[in-house]
Amino acid sequence: MGVPLEAGRPVRSRDAGAARRVRFGGTAGMVGAAILLCFILIAVFAPVLSPYSPHASNFTPWQPPSAAHLLGTDDYGQDVLTQVLWGARTSIVVGVAAGLLASSLGVLVGLVAGYTGGWIGEVLMRLVDLLQVIPTIVLLIIIAAFVPSLGLGGEILIIGFLSWVWMARSIRSQVLSESARGYVEASRVIGMSNAEIMFREILPNLLPVILANLVLVVTGAILAEASLDFLGIGSPNVISWGTMLSLAFSTNAILYNAWWWIAPPGFCIATLCFAFILIGNGVLAMYAQRRGSMAQH
Amino acid sequence: MVTAVPALEVRNLSVVYDGVGAPVRAVDAVSLALAKGEILGLAGESGSGKSTLAFAVTGLLKIPGRVAAGQVLLGGAPVPLQDEAAMRRIRWRRLAIVLQSSMNALNPVLSVGQQMADAVLAHETVPYARALARAAEMCDLVHVQRRYLASYPHELSGGMRQRVCIAMALLLHPDVLIMDEPTTALDVVVQKRILEHVLQLRSRFGFSVLFITHDLPLMLQFCDRIAVLYAGRLAEAAPAAELRDRPAHPYTQGLLHAFPTLRGERRALTGIPGRAPDLRQPIPGCPFAPRCPVAVDVCSSRRPALVRLGGGDHLAACLLVEEPALGKGRAGAPAVLCADGAPRRAAADRAGPVLAAHGVSKRFAARGGRGTIRAVDSVDLELHAGEIVAVVGESGSGKSTLARLLLRLMPPDGGVVALDGRALTGSKVDAGFRHRVQMVFQDPFSAFNPVWTVGRSIGRAVALHHGRWDHARRQAFAARVLGDVGLGPAQEVLAKYPREFSGGQLQRLVVARALAVEPEVLVADEPTSMLDVSIGVEVLNLLHDLRQRRRIGVVYITHNLASARYLADRILVMYGGQVVESGGTEEVVRHPRHPYTQLLVASAPEPGSARLDAAAAELALVDAGIAASGCPFHNRCPLAMEVCRTEVPGVTATPQGTVRCHLYGGPESVAQNT
Lengths: 297, 674
Hints:
The structure holds 2 protein chains of 2 kinds.
Chain A: H1 14-44, H2 46-49, H3 80-116, H4 118-133, H5 136-146, H6 151-162, H7 165-179, H8 182-190, H9 194-231, H10 241-250, H11 259-295
Helix pairs in contact in A: 1-3, 1-11, 3-4, 3-6, 3-7, 3-9, 3-11, 4-7, 6-9, 7-9, 8-9, 9-10, 9-11, 10-11
Chain B: E1 8-17, E2 24-34, E3 39-43, H1 50-57, E4 65-74, E5 77-78, H2 84-90, E6 95-98, H3 112-121, H4 128-141, H5 158-170, E7 176-180, H6 188-205, E8 208-213, H7 216-222, E9 225-230, E10 233-239, H8 240-245, H9 250-256, E11 307-309, E12 314-316, H10 319-322, E13 355-365, E14 372-383, E15 388-392, H11 399-406, E16 414-419, E17 422-424, H12 431-436, E18 437-440, H13 454-465, H14 471-484, H15 490-494, H16 503-515, E19 521-525, H17 533-550, E20 553-558, H18 561-567, E21 570-575, E22 578-584, H19 585-590, H20 595-603, H21 642-646, E23 652-654, E24 657-659, H22 668-673
Parallel strand pairs in B: 3-8, 3-9, 6-7, 7-8, 15-20, 15-21, 18-19, 19-20
Antiparallel strand pairs in B: 1-2, 1-4, 4-5, 9-10, 10-12, 11-12, 13-14, 13-16, 16-17, 21-22, 22-24, 23-24
């Protein structure tokens, strides 16, 4: 998935190539982890790092970056840097919480559907098909028509329930291939219960795939949160990068050339997502290495 | 022959694989000569370097593999191994190769004829029609009907695809044909026919063959001369009969005594304990020394030279052959490898069978959803305590499905499985059944969960069935079970992960886990097919030993009739989901009654039997699949009658056993009424 296949280049060596990929994946993963750590620190220490109160809106609007306001001010007379620092909290909390929720659902459904098969698996996968064809954004807009504001918890629930489907698919296919391996049959012959086989025997083997998918789901959740806020369905009272972009958009910041208002939240969203993708690649590379060493025998 | 230029010569060839850490010396200074029209066998187990040698000779080595030293000569002229363009001209034209996986080497989207014609056109400028005509002629020679030229590979059986590959290799009349495990994936009956056809073609075109396989009995029947590789080095080379009767190298001796036979006395086989050396490490002495039963101290430090025995064509690399004085006082030792007389089990138990199947059937939906396949068709099987029953059949015979029905891993569509004479119905399997019937798996490499230590996996088996035991008692029991399969020390073994073990060790661990629930019955599904022969024999001996000491009954499922004879008291032969014949082991092997069993016995490679006959008559249409109606074997059977095409034969019971064939009894309906 995330491991480049190096098409077109002569395969120098399976061993050496894999080692190089692992090294690259490992480095990339470390870089991703470092970036993520920075964002977490920013989120945790936002009150300390912020030059002003997040609710202070008594500055002159539309100021370009200056010594007093490193990233300028917005239309409402708020300090952009303060907004960006506090916004990290929302993005990380919603991203991780919704990502975990979606992953748990996806793993549970994928595992049960893949291992049990039969009519249970069939019903679950049809449900997955159904959810997959619902256009998320349209659904969100409809929800927005009924619910004026979701609040943080609502956002997490909505995003979580809408993004487990892809995870369930990928887990199910992995479970199918694991189930064909001898140890699953061996576990049955030994007399283990289905629950034990699913959660103690198969689940640990899925861990690398779960982790790699988890980071992608988290990435998606961060973007979804920004979208929700951008559409104005999120919580207007909560400071987030999505809200910042939404406000910048609605006040035509781009026409006033107020790049300092648009670029920082955009950059942060992109960088945070990028960090998660790097971590995902790193996890997959580590997994490939372990699989490789097993395949030697 | 001494003066003639060999068709193919390998001089001092060394091949290494560069990787992380030290390079792997896969082929180490091997010299071989293949005379014109000769068939040279290259024998060896996994990791011996035999396939690497084939790739190196054809210039098909892939990076990280590289020829580190040595030369390959074709008709006396050096082969430009480094020049890919020149190699491309030589390959196929003068040196063709048939690979183990070549059945999958055909392009699925091109018709057979098109691919064969392309092979001609790649080397010669002839019209397409002419190329196709040559393909058709070659198809005649390998006994593939011309109409299949218009077919696509998936429409052909495995045997036919391999014939097509051989035909394609011979299209340009090469001087040398290299065959790397060409028939390993095929059933023995098909294998024998294909090799007979290769012999016919050889006498017609006069090409030489380098025949690579792990199957020594097959090689003894098929080859003029045999070279044995071990750990990338040439251990021994001799004419086939000479090698069979007077093997000089202890490894060859061990290998020859690792193959069970169908004829002659039944002997105990010992296999070769240990595992092949790590080729990353330098091996100063003889690579076989750690496993050698007659090794002396100097064997591990001094590299043996290849010496000529009796001034003839027999070469061996063993210090004890070089200097017989070294082995003084231990000269008789090799005989230990073929100790005599595996004891037969005493008379069958008076008590009823422990595990039985009565008329069990299982159908599967056919691929593409058209109709059903009778995977298992009203099979009866009885296993008494302490008995070993072998189920022999080729791929698709339904033997593995039968194993899963016996283990109640799937419910039968018809018939019942009974334990102690009590029929087991319903899909729920209680712990009591699992406690008494256990399984040994075909693939030891995947039978353990890679994320847990083997100690945890075996510990779970103990805990599930001895829940009341305390920790210490479970530990002690796990250690005892390991002792039973010959592994130790327990603490160390149990703390390791599956990937840290060799295949043979893993299969012992699989048996140990099964024993951890103290079963009375083991169902072993091809337990040795993934292992090297010298290792697999040890697993068979372990099963035999467990029966002797623990009175464990074993259902031994295999495609290899000779190994069934080695291990089993009774044999069931399966074909097309039916038990076509059953009876006492010697009875079935010596006096097979069903035409399929007869064909199976006649096709099994035997080290002692006559060489393959190039002019063998076509007894059966070997490439035909299982017949959909009537007797499943009727379309391959040389004795088929009209009734065989329409009616399923019933089971005829005789004092020697049962047979399911119209030659011996009526159709099914009659048999069921009686």
